[in-house]
Amino acid sequence: MKQLTLRIPTHGGKRPGAGRKPKGRRALVSHRSRPRFEKPAAVQVTLSMAAHVWNLRSRRCFQVIETSLAEARERFGLRVIEFTVLGNHLHLIIEADSDEALSRGMQGLNIRIAKALNRLMDRKGRVFADHYHSRLLCSPTELVNAIAYVLGNAAHHYGESGQDRFSSRAYEAPHRRKILSHPRTWLLRSGWRRARTVPQWLAANSWPPPWAQEGRPDAPARRIDHGAG
Asked: CB–CB of 161/186 below 8 Å?
């Protein structure tokens, strides 16, 4: 007689269809756990908007985002240092005191932006296409490349040259102090001086960064990367 296999029900484990569902047709951001950190760190963050949200590179949408950044300034151990606004997403360079501060601070900022945009559009419901994407910046070269990517993104997408009025790159010092924060970590305050290269356009137009401290006299010279746009 053939012996039958008895399946014993279990709880937990990998199951078809289990887990958090993506927003929309597919997940835009991986739902794997984000890196944990217990000391202040620099982070690059991207926020993508749902398809129905208006073009963010309009004066009224940009003002809403600016106001949200100002209201969320220095809250929950999160500090926004640089940012740029594209048509349907935002890039930010952020300093967070810990992974928990990053999570709480981004949650608060997202809620402010979502409520403000919904008021502007006279709508209700979700505004973001998915959860925010984040990447820890652990070295001077990583930081400088991330800043170049964030502040140069409009030129990449739209071919615009000069100061981008929809980014912190265009801010004068008094306005910057109202919207953004001053960094506290070594990497953002002076560690950027140790980057191996600085893209040529960044060195010519936006460098050194306005929030930077004077570096140490023995800080090594930076090589200008003439091949990076």
From this structure: no
Question: What single letter denotes the amino acid at residue 122?
Answer: D
**Rounded CA gap, 197 and 175, in Å?**
29
Domains assigned to the chain: 41-209 (3.30.70.1290)
- CB contact at 8 A, 127 and 53: yes
Which tokens in the block code for residue 80? 């926004």
- On the question of a cis peptide bond just before residue 208, with omega within 30 degrees of 0, the verdict is yes
Q: Three-state DSSP class for 225?
A: strand
The pLDDT of residue 68 is above 70: yes
Residue 5, Cβ density class (10 Å: 0-12 exposed, 13-18 middle, ≥19 buried): exposed
Please identify which residue in the block is written with the tokens 């926020």.
47
Q: Of the candidates 59, 29, 63, which has an alpha carbon nearest to the alpha carbon of residue 46?
A: 29
Return the amino acid letter for 19: G
Q: Give tens-digit pLDDT for 87-145.
A: 999 999 999 999 999 999 999 999 999 999 999 999 999 999 999 999 999 999 999 99
Q: Report the sign of the C-alpha dihedral through residues 154, 160, 161, 164, in that order.
A: negative
- Tens-place pLDDT, residues 10-41: 555 555 555 555 555 555 555 566 678 899 99
pTM of the model: 0.78
Which phi and psi (to 5°) does residue 148 adopt? -60, -40
**CA nearest to 167, candidates 192, 142, 150:** 150
